[in-house]
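ingest -> validate -> predict -> emit
validate: passed (alphabet ok, no gaps, 304 aa)
predict: started
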Amino acid sequence: MATILEKTAGLLAFVRTVDAGSFAGAARLVGATPSAVSKSVARLEQRLGVRLLQRSTRTLTPTAEGVAYYEHVAPHLRAIEEADDIVQAPGNVRGVLRVTAPTTFGRPLISAWAGSFLDRYPDIKLDLSVTDRRIDLIREGFDIAVRIGELEDTNLIGRSLGVLHYVLGASPKYLQRRGIPRSVDDLKRHGCLRYVLAGRPQPFTFADGRRVVPDGPFDTDDAQYLIEAAVEGAGITQFMRLAIENDLAAGRLRTVLPEIPLFTTPVYVLHPFGRQLPLRARLFIDFLVEALGVGNGPNLSSQS
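emit:
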């Protein structure tokens, strides 16, 4: 009969291989060589009598049995890894914190993190994925997600960070060259920069329900490129105000039609831990609420 040590041998290598998508990636996560990780997974497969990973020259994916096994053991492995966090004091907290955030939120999140959180907790390493893809936190091994918009049905635990306000903006040199729009209809005569989501340009959406799908010289699915193009004078576009506060303050951008408000949308921070929230995750969530949400720092709902 196999001992508990024999039964758990190879679990870490297997779970990290699925997380990383390769033996090389898993090796970096566990501090071993790719060969050692591969052999550890092979021994686990031999003990179980099933193939957990489908290997080819270019890809490595879990089999149906591998997916089922991963979904069962990964949460338990995570709980073991988080056990140290539960008993750590805030001043001594350490470890890797995996966070995912949408592209429009990456810039202000990094600004707040580098300006404050890093100084408070220098032993917490931030692993940030900036993407508009809805990452499966449990399946892909993330600790925290920042999500914009109404929450879908989910088993994740959510906490509100406030409400995001959007504005139209352009650079002073563009407005000097093309003139300042005085009405929504005027936008049709301007070059507008469009954010593309799922292959579709997003409309400029106003609080009164009006939606304008503008035309212009530039489409992109990267919010940062949209900001940079506007700063360089390429046209007018719709921004999350929080993302351009520094550009507005420095005069690189100016709001357009400020008297006609655009839509607002809620923003949340989510985690998959239930009541067993690791200390490093709790500290980061509290920091986000303080720095970006309903605390004493810059507030997402501020329109000033």
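DSSP finds eleven helices and 14 strands in the chain.
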